[in-house]
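A further point concerns the way the authors explain their paired sequence and structure data. The central task, working out the C-alpha cells from the amino acid sequence alone, is never made concrete. I therefore recommend that a typical entry be quoted early in the introduction. An entry of this sort, consisting of the sequence and the corresponding C-alpha cells, reads as follows:
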Amino acid sequence: MQRIATRGPSWPLHDLAATRRLEAQALGADPPPPLMQRAGAAVAQLALALAPHAQCIRIVAGVGNNGGDGLEAAIALGCLGKHVEVVRVGPPASVDARAALDRARAAGVAIDPTDPRPLGPQDLAIDALLGLGASRPPEGPIAAAIKDLNALPCPVLAIDLPSGLQPDTGQPLGSACVRATHTLTLLTLKPGLFTGQGRDLAGSVWLDDLQCADVAEAPPSALLHAGTLDLPPRRHAQHKGSFGDVAVIGGAPGMVGAALLAGRAAHAAGAGRVFVQCLADAPPDHDMVRPELMLRHDWLRHQEPTALASATVVAGCGGGDAIRAALPALLAHARRLVLDADALNVIAADEMLQAPLRQRARRGAATVLTPHPLEAARLLELADGSAVQADRLGAARALAERWQCLVLLKGSGSVMAAPGRLPLINASGNAALASAGTGDVLAGWIGGLWAQQPGDTADEVAESAWRSAARAAWLHGAAAEAGSAPVLRAADLVERMAALR
C-alpha cells in the first residue's frame, strides 16, 4: 500500500474499462485469499493507521462488491479488537457480497444495529456504498446514506472511489457524492481521483494493487505527473547566451502587468535574456521590480524570420485584441511558441489564423496552448466551460488533435495532451493559484524552461516542449502547496517558484 504524493515518480492511471478488465483477470486467477478478502484486509490496515484510537468504526455498505469489500474490512477489524458497525442500504446483490455478509455475521460483526453509536472526531466512517459500481446519479437510500456520511464529525475513508464520483472524469454523477478525507483505491489509480472535482472529493489518495501482477503490465490511459526538483547543474563556462532568449508579447492597455509577470517568470525559470513587448499605447520603458527584463516597444517588427525562429515566444498574456496583429508572423516563423489567454481567444474567433496554427507541426514548429476551461471551450466551439470540465481528459485530447499542438488545460488536476502521446495529469497545486496573473506566470515559466533546452529536429523541439510544460505545471502547483496562505499573488508566485527550482 502506498500513499500517492505530489512529489516523486509518475504513476500510471487506468480508466474504468481498463480497471474492469484487470478486475476480471484478477478474479479469474484468484489465488488465496480471494480478491474481496484481500481488499477488506487492505481497508482494515489503512483504517487502523488512520484512526488508531477510534472507539467505533462505522462501515456504510452498498449492495454490490464495494459493500462486500466493506464487510470483509469489518471482519478484519473485528478480529483486531475494534468495535465495528455495518450499516447497509440493501441486501447484497452479488454472490461474493452475500458470502461476505455470511462471513461477517458468523464473525459476530454488528450488522444494521438498532442503536448505532454516535461517532466523534476520533472515530472513522468507511464509505463502501458504490465504488466503481456507480453508473447513474445516486438516489433514494444511497443518496440519503451519502448525505449522512458527509454530515459526520469524523474522517471518512472511501473504498476505491468516493461514492458518486465518475472514475474517468472526476465529476460527480449527480448532486450526491461522498466527500472523503481519504480514499483507498484498489488495483489501479483512476484518473478521476486527480482532476475535476476529484481532488476535493477524494482527499488523500492511497493505492493497494492487491498483489495483482497484471496491473503492472496493463497499458495506462494516462499518467499522473508527480515531479521532482532535480535540475542539471550549470557548467562554469556557460553564459547567458547558453540559455536562450524568450520574447513575451502581450500587455495591451490596462493589462501591462500580465506581460511583465510572464517576463519575470521566464527570467526566473533560467532564460538567458527576456524581451518584453507591451502592446499598450504608452508602454513602460522598464520594469522597476525586475530591471533585467528588456522592454522593447517594437521587438517583433525588427525581427527577421530567422531571428524569430531562434527565440522562444510567449504570446497573448494580457494581449487583448491587440495581439491579433502579431499572430500571423508568430504562427509563420516562431519555431517555439507558447500561446496563452487572449492569443487563444483571438484564434478561436478568427478562421484566418486557425489554418496556420494547425500547419505548424507539419513544418517542424512546436506550439504549446495553455487554456483555462472557458478558453478551451471557445477553441472547441462549445457553449461554455462546463462541457470541458465534464471531461477534462477528453477535452484536452480533442484540443490537441484539433490544433495539432501540445495542450496544457489548466485547472484542478491540469491535463497535458499532445497528438500521439499519453496524456498527463499534474499532481500538484491547490486553490491558492486561483488569483489573477498566475496563468501568465505559468506561460512565462514554460517559455523560460523551453528556451534553455537545445533541439534541432522537429522531434527534439516537440520533446523539449513536453518536458518544459510538464515541469513548469508541476513546479507552479508545488509553489502553491509550499505556502499556507489561501491566496498566492502572482508576483509572489514567481519568487516562490524561483526558490523551489
Summary: The mean pLDDT is 93. Residues 240-500 form a domain with the UDP-N-acetylmuramoyl-L-alanine:D-glutamate ligase fold (CATH 3.40.1190.20). The chain has two domains: 2-221, 240-500.
